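To: structure desk
From: M.T.
Subject: fold request, one chain
Message: Could you run this one when you get a chance? Sequence is below, nothing fancy, just the single chain.
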Amino acid sequence: MTRVVITGMGTVSPIGNDTPTFIANLLAGKLGIDKIKKFDASATGISVAGEVKDFDPQLRLSKKAAKRMDLYSQYAVYTALEALEQAGINAENTDPYEMGVIIGSGIGGLTTIQEQVIKMHEKGPQRVSPLFVPTAIANMAAGNVAIAANAKNICTAVVTACASATNAIGEAYRQIKEGRAQVMLTGGAEASVNEIGIAGFAALTALSTQADPQVASLPFDSKRSGFVLGEGAATLVLESLEHAQKRGAKILGEIVGYGATCDAYHITAPDPSGEGAARAMQAALDEAGIKPDQVGYINAHGTATHANDEGEARAINRVFGADSQVWVSSTKSMTGHLLGAAGAIEAVATVAALQLGQLPANIGLTQQDEKCQINVVTQNALPVPIEYALSNSLGFGGHNAVIAFKKWSD
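Reply: Done. Structure tokens follow.
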């Protein structure tokens, strides 16, 4: 089968609007969670979020193009253009019919939906924008990325809640591995830090009600009280090894396995036994052809909800053993939870950990929950050279998705 490598990464996140800044801040343990500034959230009972700061779409998109996109699509295209630039993909070295797009989003254009419903309610249906549907629908990030990149192979969207981006990356990996494309642009985008997004998750009692950003997102800590909503996007350029080497590309990492399963248990709660997530991790390991003791790091889904963290810890124990020393951290401690984009920025974080031999910390953790018996990286990035790593994403609806990454070496 064809080997699949990563040659470009683009990122917009609460801790940086390009990949080098994101990685530097991630390894420095920078907190991207702060008081909500986009709107007055006081009536929701929620005070903090992982907002993207100082985002200027016109650094990469034309004013006209940006105006015709919801914010989540802007994030997607912006990161795709950064990833393409890093990869050096262009019309001279890549056949557009061999390049595809798979982008995940849990919700799609929620900002547009909110704005247009309010407009319809206040001013009548005749005032709804003619661009409402093509800006709001959840496939449009993929469509806009394909247009920007002139990618004419498969173009599709994945919607599996918080597993969307990881499923998208896994499916893009399979497209290349199985010979249906040579290059894929893949990842996830989300822009749900708005009134309806915060209000909806608050009504579900899923969000942290902590007012202090320093202690709002505490994955695997006994004091955790829910997740913090984040926003942003990341796009990866995947290529067949042959295509990348033929054009002399710099290779950043390799994808070697993908697992996807379903709990078939509950619409929002994960299976508390961790059985479904464990099967997804094992499937990724099996496809990679590696044993658990070869994995040096797991970027956990780690949302800081009691149900998720306990279930995921049990899943890790099922696969790696109760006494496993595999290092684990949730970078949501810094970024908050980007929903359908979470797996994309966490893929970037995992590739960086492999490249640099620096494992990002699960910042803020001071008292690990006894029900989460895993080996968590705390406080500071940990210098450990590793060859293999997993990135886990678990979504409402029981979706489990896991990618196995390998450090690149010639």
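Reply (cont.): Residues 253 and 408 are 5 Å apart (CA to CA). Let me know if you need anything else for the meeting.
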